[in-house]
């Protein structure tokens, strides 16, 4: 080092405390930060387990609860651990239609999660393109878009979803549409806000100065820097979407009875609550709870890790 | 280093600004317009960031631009670097009127003028590797082919005192001084002639500042660069510039070769400014500050902008805007006092 | 208080931060003293521990930091180990502090009046009217025009220079014995800086207040301070009367620092540059912290140099001080 | 101020226009309220007569036009089902919902802020971690499920609280309220807690995040350096600053509180607007739905107005005319 | 003594002529009387009329009760009856008018306590019709608006209870009419609280907030039965749950071949309908879905109602036979079908649809389920298709016979759809059988009870024989109360507070 110094060229030694070399990409740093919290790590593991179950439900479920030919009304309301007359054991019991609850929960997770994730993703793509457009074009376009966003946000999600579903009818696709309709605005607002902040940063000026095209600046420079808040919103909104779907199912609008999501399982099971057939409602309830809680925990940690203000 | 100050000869000028003005207008939305129709006091707000600035920068020259915070230095720098459009006035690069250039030519000119920023943290995209930060533009603009790419980047980094082995890293892995070097490398990578340094060393520690200033001087010698060096630190400007422009509230109040200016400032503002610079050599000084602060550019004072703080202000200063006129060869000042003398 | 006792004497102050990554010795064996009406300049580069020193004196070091050793004698009383209640009565009362960023030091949602009066009321049994009167007077003293009206204003209605004056006025409210000014002019323009320096100097002289002026700008210290301490990596590497240190620096770092300040005598000439950069204080290896960047470094520097007293009134922490002939 | 009011007015008019339009035509597409209303024994002639009586036999755009004209006169139409002015139906049920919403708001602020500030001040203590886990739970639990469990536990198993209904009300300034009587209060408690749970978590987290951010600000350190007592630092300097985001979000979420009372009200049989709207949606009682939406929009506008004014009071840096959203 | 009641459904108004809706009539029956009241089995009992008889095929005479006083003390007489009938078709904004019952009838006053009713055609159901219409005093009938009734100003009847207060959605309070002409009720005060959600209603009873609830969810019945502190009252209703199939279209929209292609509507084939009926395990539905609280149905009204056939029994469960019939009909492998049903209208409606889908799927008719909120369902089921035709192919619906005899379902469900005659109005399968039509129309015009009974039985046998609809079960209604409170279940599902008795 001293040798270098003598040449008058200061050594480009790594900055404070960064000992490791190339390994320190933003992704790795992010991961290292993320796994610092044991709770969040645990939550992530559980969540991955849930996702695994959801994805592979058809292969790991004991029965196919959506296949009416195999579901028998004669088996309904059996308590956990009962045996069906074909000799199969219902570990978590059966629901009011005779579905094996364990399988129903697996499939329900699949439905709930895919509703949450699909609506989250679609809303994200839609909302962030709109938000980015607004931030990029500015002026009238921006004003117009943001007014629409305001209107949307000033209206409570549950009401909009209620009315929309009343209009659209039932089905997974319908509920996704309704959820997207109530969620896109959050993404639009988030992306626009951070895009506006990023756009004013000097690195964007530098890129302008380097005569890079607007498109390139927007997508290669601005957008990646808007992602962190977006990721947080995605997790939070996905959890919200799942919860909202459950609520809508509870209110009797949402998914078809034969393909119940967790919310619908709970709602159906609730009828049996007072007759102390607790398992029909409690088990899906616990599954829903774990799902939402883990997503929120993961989202929380993401927020902490990705929040530049809390970053050391 | 003692290049003689180039006189503002139009022919030799690399960059020339004529009557450049920039106003930031905060427009009213529909509701605002309605309200103001209905007699509300709400009005459009206009910030007079630049007001009729003339400036000439000769090839190879280092021009310093000094002024208090908010006086419009950065705005001028941004306009020169092509990031902002002026509201009024013309800009000539190598004698060509920039606003009227063909797109291809305009792009070439844009690349010839680069900028280095104050904040070593905000001016680098945190999600790009050093290699891409520096190499993106040359690659996109076809200044290098993709086979030459790596070598070219190494070369530029080396020139700026950075080890090429760090090019796969991200900005957060560097210290402030190193980041500033990356910023310089990014600018140099498109082979500019003219570099606008906007407070490029203000955020750095003294020892690092010295390193970067030395780098600027070295690069200028090696590449024949021209600098517009914006700073509020008179010491730094004095050290590096050949000629200095003093700016006050959007207007140039004085310009002179550095030595002349520091030896014998003409404008009352320049005088006050110079008097107040703390120096290592002065001990137990009696500070004699100028009264007041720089007024708001929203409502600049009439007449000479400096008159509310000027000890010599006369009635004329309150009404009439003094023009920048030559008071000695190579020296210009905008003060009514010069007429009376 | 005995007239010969210094207002503040700091001895072997150690403030460490116990972070997850390791121990940061932000302040390590720092000693100095300030007398009545004296201005001590504390200079050093970013991260050298200046601010932490200031906070240590006030007992405001937050976790994970802790004052782990040393004495802080204020008017003869050791306050390094004083309890929180005692510190509370000293802070803002006998020892006041001014912060670097005037934009951030005033609470944006409280009126200036409130922020000033609460300082008086926290320490003195006076009614609100008197407190307000004091606040008004203090604003007047620091040169704020029409202080009566300005009292009711919110901080955002002031410019940066004005806010810094309000902060100074707050520091003056209870007529403290010591003011710690942490880079109060760094964020300001030269013209405003001059105004602030003017006020500070005047007050110090008129009231006999002792002052610690923290800065990284040697030039400011040059004009203002009586004594100077140069900090590097949490330690004081050189201390002494201002003229002595600036005119005859003996520590290689001080010399480098002075050399790297642009000066009219060396226009256009490459500046002297200290190679490398300030070391991270985290798990700093033993020995002289400057040895990596020091042209004189040799094997001896692997050990930690003590603060020597090579000649009258000066101290230096180096095995190879640059002692000129005649010094 | 005037700009601000004009902007608000324009926005709310736009919202109302768009919403009423969508709802009007949406319901028209979905179904006929007549099928809900008519006795199954009725024949086609009866159905047509009923449709005519309700004006449903006219083309939708014409109906919409009549609606607009009447709306301008302050008449939002009559409920198809109850035959009473839709507005009146809603206004009758509004106090119950508002009482519930305010009670929930009160609870969430009263509990949420101290918890949040505490855990923001001591982020690493066990208590604070417990608070945060609790807030995650509160965030995640679907309202309806919590409501059901609460009824199960507190009303059925323990028998401490009444399970449903509003209980005794006494008029306060002519508005019936239930919180003044013991019976009313015991009925109010569970629904209010149920509704508050989500917001309480939200407030806790906001307050915590705010506190964590504020305590590191220079002005807090400066306040301490002035020798202020920790009490004053927290209660004045910290609290006043975190109130800015908290008030804003609470204000905006108050609308959500009213909307979410739909769920709580149906679980606890609370006689408010939420139940009305659910049933109106189920029965396609269009005038009530539209009127409800218009009233909620009006309420939101008012709330937003109050929030913004509060905001500019709390945060002197904000000028009302610059607030857009 | 106060009775606290939790009700599943709330009236939309107190005005007895405003809305022909179950909950409204239920409330009205406590405050008002009709000329003829219906007992718990919907048998006609003297009300404000002490007797009635046909004078000829189109004229009926009603003798009115003397000495009856309204709650406000005024006297009841024939003018009130005429005024009430006069008011019925003229209630503004009425969403569903009672005019159905007065249509085609002219009323004349013979003296203060006798009236004559003339019908345009022979109409044996005249007494049944008039049992639906509540009598208010002539001054009220002339001036009162619906709002006046709701506020209580005009809610003045002759019934066993006086109106005290109604806060919609919150409470309805009644108090005993001490001057009631009939048996005076036991309760001095009745406070009624609407609790829409079934579990919440049960919870309220369990928690002791109310003494008495109606519409007990089937799932809670076993639990409540086992609770020694509670008592239940159960009885079959007049409501049959049935399946209606598309008898009309050759290409029915929700019937598809196994491969998803189109198929000639097999539901038109009686053998296929038979197969479907045989495939349904009614006992399983009753046992497993309805918790035993329903009665398997073999026709349109349960035993004991007028016009019910003694020869019809519920189709026994016979999946083998069903498959054989399918093979016979040329669809041995079955086909694809969608069953549509409401999910918020009948007891366990969505679950029943699901169970049926399971059963049909098991004999090869691959059935998917779509359940809709009633708000959407009924319009589409009745006229959601092109030109106002029924949209679905296979629907689950219910029918309650308001008249309490068999002509009600027969004419609405099985008669050919005929808009002009007002017959077959609810024939969502568009079943059409000229022979059956003739018998129904004949029955509707036969005033002689015995003759009419025979005709109705014959019509029922014909309709069921051809499986115009496939009956599933009769709903059983359940009320639950604190121990000691007894209620006799009513077939019309009403909760009549005068009929609630405390054992003490
Ligand atoms: N985009 C903008 N919109 C509105 N006003 C602006 C904008 N950019 C700059 N200004 C205003 O123009 C004036 C000049 O700003 P500029 O940044 O050029 O000052 P500066 O001399 O660089 O100051 P500093 O030393 O603080 O960087 C300031 O008053 C500033 O508030
Ligand atoms: N909360 C903390 N946790 C860990 N290390 C800290 C903390 N606060 C300060 N430090 C360390 O203490 C050292 C001294 O910091 P200090 O703020 O005193 O520097 P300074 O000399 O005031 O610098 P500047 O000129 O930038 O204000 C720094 O290296 C810093 O990393
Ligand atoms: Mg600038
Ligand atoms: Mg500091």
Overview of the structural elements:
The complex is a heteropentamer of chains A (312), B (341), C (327), D (325) and E (504). Chain B has one domain (11-27, 45-340): P-loop containing nucleotide triphosphate hydrolases (Rossmann fold). In chain B, a hairpin with a 2-residue loop joins β4 and β5 (96-97). In chain B, α4 (130-140) crosses α5. Chain B has 12 helices and 12 strands. Chain B has 341 residues and is α/β, with parallel strands linked by helices. Chain B starts with 12 loop residues before the first strand and ends with a helix. Helix content of chain C is 32%, strand content 22%. Chain C has helices spanning 50-58, 84-90, 102-105, 112-123, 128-141, 147-151, 160-172, 190-207, 218-224, 242-247, 252-260; strands at 8-19, 22-34, 39-44, 65-74, 77-78, 95-98, 178-182, 210-215, 227-232, 235-241, 315-316. In chain C, the strands form 2 sheets. Chain C has a 7-stranded mixed beta sheet, sandwiched between helices. In chain C, β4 (65-74) and β5 (77-78) form a beta hairpin. In chain C, α4 (112-123) packs across α5 (128-141) and α5 (128-141) packs across α7 (160-172). The model of chain C has no long low-confidence stretch (mean pLDDT 84). Chain D has helices at residues 2-30, 33-37, 44-54, 60-72, 86-121, 126-140, 143-157, 182-215, 218-225, 230-268, 273-283, 286-314, and strands spanning 170-172, 175-177. The radius of gyration of chain D is 24 Å and the shape is globular. The mean pLDDT of chain D is 80. By secondary structure, chain E is of the alpha+beta class. Chain E is 28% helix and 24% strand. Chain E has 16 helices and 20 strands. At the A-B interface, α8 and α9 of A face α3, β6, α4 and α6 of B. The complex binds adenosine-5'-triphosphate (ATP) (2 copies) and magnesium ion (2 copies). Residues 24, 47, 49, 67, 69-75, 232, 297 of chain B line the site of one adenosine-5'-triphosphate.
Strand order of the largest sheet of chain C: 6-7-8-3-9-10-11
Could you tell me which ligands this complex binds, including any ions or cofactors? adenosine-5'-triphosphate, magnesium ion
Which chain pair shows the most residues in contact?
A: D-E, 55 and 57 residues
Radius of gyration of chain B: 22 Å
* Count of helix runs of chain C: 11
State which percent range the strand residues of chain C make up. 15-25%
Reported CATH architecture of the largest domain in chain C: 3-Layer(aba) Sandwich
Query: Would you identify the CATH H-level superfamily of chain B?
Result: P-loop containing nucleotide triphosphate hydrolases
- What composes the largest sheet of chain C? 7 strands, mixed
What level of helicity do the residues of chain B show?
25-40%
Q: What's the N-to-C terminus distance of chain B?
A: 35 Å
């Amino acid at each position: 080092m001293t040798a270098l110094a003598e040449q008058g060229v200061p050594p480009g030694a790594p900055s404070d405390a960064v000992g490791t070399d190339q390994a320190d990409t933003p992704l790795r740093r992010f991961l290292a930060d993320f796994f610092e919290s044991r709770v969040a790590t645990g939550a992530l593991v559980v969540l991955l387990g849930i996702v695994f179950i959801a994805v592979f439900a058809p292969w790991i479920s004991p029965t196919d609860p959506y296949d009416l030919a195999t579901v028998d009304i004669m088996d309904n309301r059996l308590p956990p651990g009962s045996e069906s007359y074909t000799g199969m054991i219902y570990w978590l019991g059966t629901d009011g239609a005779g579905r094996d609850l364990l399988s129903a929960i697996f499939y329900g997770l699949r439905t709930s999660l895919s509703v949450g994730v699909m609506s989250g993703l679609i809303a994200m793509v839609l909302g962030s393109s709109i938000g980015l457009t607004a931030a990029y074009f500015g002026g009238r376009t921006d004003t117009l878009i943001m007014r629409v966003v305001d209107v949307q946000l000033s209206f409570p999600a549950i009401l909009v979803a209620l009315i929309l579903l009343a209009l659209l009818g039932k089905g997974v696709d319908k509920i996704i549409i309704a959820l997207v309709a109530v969620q896109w605005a959050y993404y639009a607002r988030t992306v626009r806000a951070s895009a506006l902040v990023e756009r004013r940063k000097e690195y964007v000026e530098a890129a302008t100065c380097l005569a890079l095209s607007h498109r390139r600046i927007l997508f290669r420079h601005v957008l990646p820097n808007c992602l962190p808040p977006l990721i947080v919103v995605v997790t939070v909104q996905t959890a919200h979407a799942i919860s909202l779907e459950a609520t809508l199912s509870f209110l009797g609008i949402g998914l078809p009875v034969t393909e119940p999501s967790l919310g619908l399982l709970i709602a159906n099971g609730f009828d049996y609550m007072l007759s102390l057939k607790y398992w029909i409602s409690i088990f899906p309830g616990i599954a829903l709870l774990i799902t939402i809680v883990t997503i929120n925990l993961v989202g929380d940690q993401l927020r902490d890790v990705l929040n530049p203000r809390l970053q050391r | 280093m003692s290049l003689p100050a180039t006189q503002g000869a139009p022919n030799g000028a690399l960059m020339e600004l004529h009557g450049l003005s920039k106003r930031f207008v905060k427009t009213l939305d529909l509701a605002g317009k309605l309200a103001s129709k209905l007699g509300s006091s709400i009005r459009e707000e206009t910030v007079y960031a630049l007001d009729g600035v003339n400036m000439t920068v000769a090839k190879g020259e280092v021009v310093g631009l000094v002024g208090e915070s908010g006086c419009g230095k950065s705005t001028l720098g941004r306009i020169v670097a092509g990031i902002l459009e002026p509201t009024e006035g013309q800009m000539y690069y190598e004698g060509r009127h920039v606003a009227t250039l063909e797109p291809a030519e305009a792009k070439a000119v844009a690349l010839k003028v680069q900028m280095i920023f104050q904040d070593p943290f905000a001016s680098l995209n945190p999600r790009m590797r050093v290699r891409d930060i520096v190499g993106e533009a040359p690659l996109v603009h076809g200044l290098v082919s993709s086979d030459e790419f790596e070598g070219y980047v190494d070369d530029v980094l080396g020139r700026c005192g950075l080890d090429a082995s760090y090019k796969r890293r991200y900005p957060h892995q560097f210290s402030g001084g190193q980041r500033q070097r990356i910023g310089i490398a990014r600018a140099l990578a498109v082979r500019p002639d003219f570099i606008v340094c906007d407070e490029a060393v203000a955020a750095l520690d003294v020892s690092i500042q010295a390193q970067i200033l030395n780098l600027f001087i070295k690069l200028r010698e090696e590449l024949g660069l021209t600098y517009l060096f914006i700073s509020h630190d008179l010491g730094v400007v004095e050290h590096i510039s050949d000629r200095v422009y003093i700016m006050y509230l959007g207007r140039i109040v004085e310009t002179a070769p550095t030595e002349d200016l520091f030896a014998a400032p003409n404008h009352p503002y320049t005088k006050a400014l110079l008097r107040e610079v703390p120096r290592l050599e002065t001990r137990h000084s009696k500070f004699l500050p100028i009264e007041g602060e720089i007024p708001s550019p929203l409502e600049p004072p009439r007449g000479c902008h400096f008159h509310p703080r000027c000890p010599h202000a006369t009635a004329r200063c309150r009404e009439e805007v003094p023009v920048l006129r030559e008071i000695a060869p190579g020296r210009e000042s905008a003060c009514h006092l010069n007429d009376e003398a | 208080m005995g007239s010969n006792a210094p207002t503040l004497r700091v001895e072997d102050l150690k403030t460490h931060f116990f972070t997850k990554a390791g121990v940061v010795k932000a302040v390590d064996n720092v000693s100095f003293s300030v007398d009545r009406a004296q201005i001590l300049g504390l200079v050093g580069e970013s991260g050298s521990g200046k601010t932490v020193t200031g906070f240590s004196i006030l007992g405001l070091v937050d976790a994970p930091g802790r004052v782990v050793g040393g004495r802080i004698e204020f008017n003869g009383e050791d306050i390094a180990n004083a309890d929180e209640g005692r510190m509370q009565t000293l802070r803002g009362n006998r020892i006041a502090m001014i912060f670097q960023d005037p934009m951030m030091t005033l609470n944006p949602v409280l009126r200036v009046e409130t922020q000033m009066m609460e300082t008086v009321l926290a320490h003195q049994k006076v009614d609100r009217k008197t407190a307000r009167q004091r606040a008004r007077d203090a604003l007047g003293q620091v040169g704020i025009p029409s202080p009566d009206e300005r009292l009711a204003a919110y901080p955002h209605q002031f410019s940066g220079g004005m806010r810094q004056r309000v902060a100074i006025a707050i520091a003056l409210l209870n007529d403290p014995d010591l003011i710690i000014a942490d880079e109060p002019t760094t964020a300001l323009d030269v013209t405003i800086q001059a105004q602030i320096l003017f006020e500070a100097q005047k007050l110090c002289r008129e009231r006999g207040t002792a002052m610690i002026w923290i800065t990284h700008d040697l030039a400011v210290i040059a004009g203002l301070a009586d004594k100077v301490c140069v900090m590097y990596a949490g330690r004081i590497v050189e201390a002494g009367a201002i003229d002595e240190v600036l005119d005859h620096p003996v520590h290689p770092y001080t010399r480098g620092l002075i050399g790297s300040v642009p000066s009219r005598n060396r226009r256009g000439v490459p500046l002297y540059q200290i190679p490398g950069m300030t070391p991270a204080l985290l798990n700093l290896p033993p020995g002289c912290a400057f040895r990596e960047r020091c042209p004189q470094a040799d094997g001896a520097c692997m050990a930690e140099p003590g603060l020597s007293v090579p000649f009258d009134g000066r101290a230096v922490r180096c095995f190879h001080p640059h002692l000129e002939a005649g010094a | 101020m005037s700009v601000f009011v004009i902007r608000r007015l324009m926005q709310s008019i736009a919202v109302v226009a768009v919403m009423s339009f969508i709802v009007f035509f949406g319901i028209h597409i979905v179904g006929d309220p007549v099928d809900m209303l008519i006795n199954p024994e009725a024949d086609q002639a009866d159905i047509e007569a009923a449709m005519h009586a309700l004006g449903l036999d006219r083309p939708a755009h014409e109906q919409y036009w009549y609606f607009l004209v009447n709306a301008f006169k302050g008449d939002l139409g009559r409920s198809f089902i109850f035959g009473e002015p839709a507005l009146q139906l809603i206004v009758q049920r509004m106090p119950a919902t508002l009482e519930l919403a305010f009670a929930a708001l009160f609870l969430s602020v009263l509990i949420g802020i101290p918890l949040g500030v505490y855990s923001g001040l001591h982020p690493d203590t066990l208590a604070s971690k417990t608070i945060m886990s609790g807030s995650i739970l509160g965030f995640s639990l679907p309202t309806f499920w919590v409501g059901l469990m609460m009824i199960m536990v507190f009303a059925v198993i323990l028998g401490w609280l009444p399970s449903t209904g509003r209980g005794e009300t006494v008029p306060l300034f002519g508005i019936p309220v239930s919180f003044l009587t013991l019976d009313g209060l015991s009925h109010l408690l569970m629904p209010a807690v149920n509704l508050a749970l989500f917001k309480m978590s939200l407030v806790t987290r906001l307050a915590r995040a705010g506190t964590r951010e504020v305590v590191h600000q220079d002005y807090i350190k400066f306040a301490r350096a002035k020798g202020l007592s920790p009490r004053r630092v927290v209660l004045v300097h910290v609290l006043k600053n975190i109130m800015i985001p908290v008030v804003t979000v609470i204000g905006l979420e108050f609308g959500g509180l009213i909307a979410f009372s739909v769920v709580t009200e149906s679980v606890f049989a609370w006689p408010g607007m939420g139940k009305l709207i659910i049933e109106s949606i189920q029965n396609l009682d269009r005038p009530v739905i539209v009127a409800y939406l218009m009233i909620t929009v009006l309420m939101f506008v008012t709330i937003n107005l109050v929030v913004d004014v509060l905001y500019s009071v709390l945060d002197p840096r904000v000028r009302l005319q610059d607030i857009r959203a | 003594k106060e009775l606290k009641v939790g009700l599943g459904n709330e009236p939309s108004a107190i005005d007895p002529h405003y809305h022909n809706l179950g909950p409204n009539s239920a409330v009205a029956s406590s405050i008002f009387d009709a000329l003829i009241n219906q007992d718990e089995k919907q048998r006609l009992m003297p009300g404000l009329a002490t007797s009635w008889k046909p004078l000829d095929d189109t004229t009926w005479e009603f003798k009115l009760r003397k000495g009856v006083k309204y709650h406000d003390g005024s006297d009841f007489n024939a003018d009130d009856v005429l005024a009430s009938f006069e008011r019925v078709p003229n209630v503004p904004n009425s969403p569903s008018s009672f005019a159905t019952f007065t249509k085609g009838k002219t009323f004349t006053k013979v003296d203060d306590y006798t009236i004559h009713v003339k019908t345009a055609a022979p109409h044996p159901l005249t007494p049944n019709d008039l049992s639906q219409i509540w009598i208010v005093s002539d001054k009220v009938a002339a001036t009162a608006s619906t709002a006046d009734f709701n506020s209580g100003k005009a809610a003045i009847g002759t019934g066993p209870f006086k109106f005290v207060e109604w806060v919609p959605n919150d409470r309805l309070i009644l108090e005993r009419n001490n001057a009631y002409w009939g048996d005076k009720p036991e309760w001095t005060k009745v406070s009624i609280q609407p609790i829409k959600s079934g579990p919440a209603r049960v919870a309220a009873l369990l928690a002791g907030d109310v003494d008495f609830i109606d519409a007990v969810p089937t799932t809670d019945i076993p639990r409540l039965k086992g609770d020694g502190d509670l008592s239940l009252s159960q009885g079959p209703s007049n409501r049959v749950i049935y399946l209606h199939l598309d008898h009309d279209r050759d290409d029915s929209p929700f019937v598809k071949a196994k491969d998803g292609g189109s198929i000639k509507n097999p539901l038109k084939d009686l053998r296929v309908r038979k197969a479907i009926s045989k495939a349904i395990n009614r006992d399983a539905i009753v046992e497993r879905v309805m918790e035993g609280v329903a009665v398997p149905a073999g026709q349109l009204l349960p035993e004991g109602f007028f016009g019910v056939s003694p020869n019809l029994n519920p189709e026994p469960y016979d999946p083998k036979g069903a498959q054989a019939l399918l093979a016979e009909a040329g669809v041995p492998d079955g086909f694809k079908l969608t069953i549509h049903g409401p999910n918020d209208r009948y007891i366990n409606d969505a679950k029943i649809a699901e169970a049926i889908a399971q059963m049909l799927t098991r004999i090869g008719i691959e059935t998917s389920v779509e359940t809709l909120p009633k708000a959407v369902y009924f319009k589409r089921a009745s006229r959601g298709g092109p030109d106002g035709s029924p949209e679905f192919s296979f629907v689950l619906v219910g029918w309650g016979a308001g008249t309490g005899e068999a002509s009600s379902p027969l004419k609405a469900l099985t008669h050919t759809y005929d808009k002009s005659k007002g017959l077959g109005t609810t024939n969502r399968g568009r079943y059409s059988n000229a022979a059956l039509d003739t018998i129904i129309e004949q029955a509707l015009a036969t005033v002689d009870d015995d003759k009419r009974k025979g005709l109705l039985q014959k019509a029922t046998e014909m309709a069921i024989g051809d499986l115009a609809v496939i009956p599933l079960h009769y709903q059983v209604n359940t009320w639950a109360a604190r121990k000691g409170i007894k209620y006799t279940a009513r077939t019309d599902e009403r909760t009549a507070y005068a009929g609630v008795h405390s054992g003490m």
